[in-house]
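queue> pop job 88
queue> type: inverse folding (structure -> sequence)
queue> payload:
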């Protein structure tokens, strides 16, 4: 059960309490117990229970956040979901292999399964928080899945990956999303300080995010890069001061 508790479902701006309740039910069906909601539509526990009978334990643990970064700060690996291909993000449609990988990762770190609003899916800012995008293979003539359907398929594959548990050696402690966001913030300040940006800073930072996600930094590696960025800021500040 420990690994099941390491996998959290995160709904970013869900628009309908019915879908939230359906996802609670899917989570209870598959044995997952932690749901985080970011800026959800108003709902009550009774709204969720209408769809998720006997899932009071999951509903009691639901957490509500005002920002996506707050919901992801303690997470080590973020998997976003998308109905369409985003060529500039690392992605996969092999859910079975992905589920095996995530189950192994859950031994040593917290995993977030991130789903976007029903109407439009994850926006660009949310996509930038994803280490990897998962696409569910569907009929290309009718690709869009209901939010709860998509969640159930992903959770089912994860449950199958856990039965039986694949043995794996523990990996190194990986940096959390909160640590990476601090690195991106200070890193961008440092690059501004040394006048690195010659064109769109957002495009450069997007590319750097993808590089960092592929590198899967350990806690120590993220701390080292953060220290380098801070030293860059200090050095740039010292050189900008007028000589006495």
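queue> result:
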């Amino acid at each position: 059960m420990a690994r099941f508790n390491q996998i959290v479902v995160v709904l970013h701006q869900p628009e309908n309490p019915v879908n939230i309740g359906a996802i609670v039910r899917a989570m209870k069906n598959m044995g997952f117990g932690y749901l985080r909601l970011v800026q959800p539509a108003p709902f009550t526990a009774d709204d969720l229970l209408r769809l998720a009978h006997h899932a009071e334990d999951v509903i009691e643990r639901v957490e509500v956040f005002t920002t996506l970064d707050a919901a992801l700060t303690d997470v080590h690996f973020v998997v976003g979901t998308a109905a369409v291909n985003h060529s500039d993000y690392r992605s996969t449609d092999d859910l079975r292999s992905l589920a095996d990988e995530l189950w192994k990762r859950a031994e040593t770190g917290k995993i977030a399964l991130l789903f976007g609003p029903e109407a439009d899916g994850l926006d660009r800012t949310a996509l930038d928080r994803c280490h990897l995008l998962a696409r569910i293979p569907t009929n290309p003539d009718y690709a869009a899945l209901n939010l709860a359907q998509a969640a159930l398929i992903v959770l089912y594959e994860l449950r199958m990956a856990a039965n039986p548990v694949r043995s794996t050696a523990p990996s190194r402690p990986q940096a959390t999303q909160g640590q990476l966001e601090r690195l991106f913030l200070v890193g961008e300040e440092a690059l501004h300080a040394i006048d690195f940006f010659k064109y769109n800073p957002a495009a450069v930072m997007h590319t750097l995010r993808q590089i960092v996600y592929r590198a899967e930094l350990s806690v120590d590696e993220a701390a080292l890069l953060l220290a380098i960025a801070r030293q860059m800021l200090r050095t740039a500040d010292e050189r900008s001061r007028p000589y006495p």
